[in-house]
Amino acid sequence: MADIRLLITDANLLVAAAVAFAAGAVSFASPCVVPLVPGYLSYVTGLSGEELAEGGARARGRVLAGSALFVIGFAVPLSLLGAAVGALTFLDGNRTARVAMGLLVIVFGAMMASGRLTRELRAADRAPAAGLAGAPLLGFVFGVGWTPCLGPALGAIFTLGAGGGSLRGGALAFVYALGLGLPFVLAGLLFHRLAGGLAFLRRNARRLQLAGGGLLVVVGIAIVTGVWAEFIRWLRPLVNGFETPI
What global pTM score does this model have? Predict the structure, then answer.
């Protein structure tokens, strides 16, 4: 319990978590995810496109259950990978490692902004049976075999969590998964109203990728130059004054 309380009031983690959530949301809006949303929703719910578009009570219930199970399915392997990277405690406090990790974040951000990695992970590739029972398994397959276009953002988040302990690394990866997954759940619940919204994301996917990649590049530069550490030191007194209800 004490470890959880420390995590919640850790300024470094809170700032990194905001970056992780934003990176997840941008990953959802990428060209290799948004076009597949209707197909994934149909797959994890067992409903046809027409049933999803109607948006009745039964459809909403199945969409909420199926999409949530799908998100949990890919959050599990991502969190475990993040925890494994975070356990590399020999990186903690090492200046050379800090610079190297900052440079990696810059590289990942540039790769994300480039928009060149667009291979798709299709539901038909080694997918489990369609419907609610297969939703978490499909999510797990999605998480283990994450696509190259998700790789740069996820790699940057793993780098932010490296050396900070397994709890921190797992937490950042889980927040990334939430940033990627919550829009998926909302898109499913509001599918009958969001056709225009998905089209907007498709039209502006490159701009969002540029913005997300640019954010990661800025974070990487801040880590390399020490600005990130200075900002965290400035923020820490403000955050440490927050009392958690836990």
Answer: 0.78
